[in-house]
Amino acid sequence: MGPYTEAFFSLVGGLAIGFVFCWEMSLITLGMVPFIILGNIVAMEFEKGYEGVQGEESKKADLVIGDAINNFKTV
Q1: What is the b/e burial string over 16-51, where b = at least 16 CB atoms within 10 angstroms of the residue's CB?
Q2: How is the chain split into domains, by residue range?
Q3: CA dist., res. 59 & res. 68, Å (int)
Q4: Rounded to an integer, what distance in angstroms lies between the CA atom of residue 20 and that of residue 70?
Q5: Packing angle of the helix pair 23-48, 2-21 (nearest 10 deg)
Q6: What is the pLDDT of residue 67?
Q7: How many angstroms separate the CA atoms of 55 and 8, rounded?
Q8: So what's the pLDDT on residue 39?
Q9: Are 32 and 17 a contacting pair, CB within 8 Å?
Q10: CA-to-CA separations, 36 to 24, 39, 49, 75, in angstroms, rounded
Q11: Which portions of the chain are predicted below pLDDT 50?
Q12: Where are the alpha helices (DSSP H) in 1-75?
């Protein structure tokens, strides 16, 4: 809930400041908001399918990186 609230107030605050200084650009930005939201929804759905595969690969990579950092000074 927190990130959604923060994003909402950032959007509203940014648009309010934008309308004060350049209302034309703010209207364009306001028109792009639905596309930004749709793009984020598509990206989240796309990343859902790769959670399992990516999780295993990330664990292996983290182990290798951790070993490399720990053994850096011993070589």
Answers
A1: eebeeeeeeebeebeeeeeeeeeeeeeeeeeeeeee
A2: 2-70
A3: 14
A4: 53
A5: 160
A6: 83
A7: 30
A8: 92
A9: no
A10: 19, 5, 21, 49
A11: none
A12: 2-21, 23-48, 51-70
